[in-house]
Design goal:
Elements lengths: L1 E2 L3 E4 L6 H8 L2 H4 L12 H17 L4 E7 L5 E9 L7 E7 L8 H15 L4 E6 L4 H9 L3 E6 L7 E7 L13 E2 L3 E4 L6 H8 L2 H4 L9 H10 L11 E8 L5 E11 L4 E8 L8 H14 L6 E7 L3 H9 L3 E12 L2 E11 H6 L4
Parallel strand pairs: 13-14
Antiparallel strand pairs: 1-2, 2-3, 3-4, 4-5, 6-8, 7-8, 9-10, 10-11, 11-12, 12-13, 14-16, 15-16
Length: 360
């Protein structure tokens, strides 16, 4: 489903029924749950609960009862919940049920914050939390999540509960399909079907794709790739802006400059680019990428931009340094890349740092 710094949040697994029973048989956990709280009594109940949750989770992947697995030891710390409220009219609640051996660790807040981000990224504009008035631990989690207290209500679960809300502003949709910008030497715009020949010429070259996660394209692969780039939106995780940089003097396609939206909640994006060899060594990669960073930190509202490169790609490292990006990591044999273990360098820049440079 999703991951956080210390947790993997996923479906409960059938073999974890004993752990689920050990969680929900405890009165200090069960006392806060449902209209008429009761402790779980048998392993068969735990198995049935896991099967039932799995079925409902599969019906709508926005929602679920999910296991919170600790990265440190693989133990399930508890359950995080993101589901429509019973007796509601579409309201969604977030909840958390942690085993006492994970209390006081901050994992409830971390998992719940991840669930809120999961909801937002899937178009849920408001999430509620309902907490029994004497559940001090959960009340504290709501406050740490920045949820707005709305007072007490008897609308849900047939009892009086403290109600909290997290609401996001209406999503700003960035459609850049008709975008056109420029630098001193480049015109930047999305590539269209009329650019297919030049687009394929760029992607079919081994020297261009040497350090990219894909190999050189044949004509069909280039056509498919160009087709995917016809929608240029930047409002959901996974969206990307891809702009062709065209030489002002000749109209030739110099290269592509790309920005991938990695996290809506954290305002993170990733920069990428590729240039035709005819234009290498002229500073055009830096020029086009600088334009894209200005767009990212300006109109698109990005907070932080990351770039990941093969550590052998010295030319690209030079581009990133000229952009003012700092190297944050060198990962040794980070991944199997085209049949060999490769090192990876990571660079990043914050909006505040970009603005301090007086760029964009």
């Amino acid at each position: 489903m999703f991951e956080t710094e210390r947790c993997v949040v996923r479906d409960w697994r059938p073999q974890e029924a004993p752990r689920l029973l050990d969680l929900y048989r405890r009165w200090e956990v069960a006392r806060w749950l449902g209209t008429e709280p009761h402790a779980m009594e048998s392993l068969e109940q735990a198995r049935q609960r896991i099967v039932g949750w799995a079925g409902r989770n599969a019906e709508d992947r926005r929602f679920g009862h999910w296991a919170v697995e600790r990265r440190s030891d693989g133990v399930v710390a508890g359950t995080v919940v993101l589901v429509p409220l019973p007796d509601g009219v579409g309201e969604v609640e977030v909840g958390w049920h942690l085993h006492p051996d994970s209390w006081g660790s901050g994992l409830a807040t971390e998992a719940a914050r991840g669930a809120l981000a999961h909801a937002y990224q899937r178009g849920v504009e408001e999430v509620l939390a309902v907490v029994r008035p004497d559940n001090d631990r959960s009340l504290a989690v709501c406050r740490r999540l920045g949820m707005q207290p709305l007072g007490r209500t008897t609308r849900y679960y047939g009892t009086e509960l403290e109600l909290f809300r997290r609401r996001w502003p209406a999503l700003v949709v960035h459609d850049l399909s008709g975008y056109r910008g420029g630098t001193e030497r480049l015109v930047l715009r999305p590539c269209g079907v009329e650019d297919l020949e030049a687009f394929h010429d760029l992607h079919s070259r081994d020297e261009v794709t040497r350090f990219l996660p894909f190999g050189s394209h044949d004509a069909a692969a280039s056509r498919a790739s160009l087709g995917r780039q016809q929608t240029v939106r930047f409002d959901r995780e996974g969206d990307a802006v891809s702009l062709g940089g065209f030489d002002r003097a000749t109209g030739r396609l110099v290269g592509l400059f790309m920005l991938f939206l990695r996290s809506v909640e954290h305002g993170n994006a990733e920069l990428g680019y590729l240039l035709h060899p005819d234009f290498w060594g002229r500073g055009l990669a830096t020029e086009g990428a600088a334009h894209l960073l200005g767009l990212a930190f300006g109109e698109l509202g990005v907070r932080r931009v990351l770039a990941r490169i093969d550590a052998r790609n010295a030319a690209s490292a030079g581009v990133l340094r000229r952009l003012g990006m700092r190297q944050e990591a060198h990962l040794v044999q980070n991944e199997l890349f085209k049949g060999e273990w490769a090192d990876e360098d990571r660079f990043a820049i914050l909006r505040t740092e970009w603005e301090a440079r007086g760029s964009g």
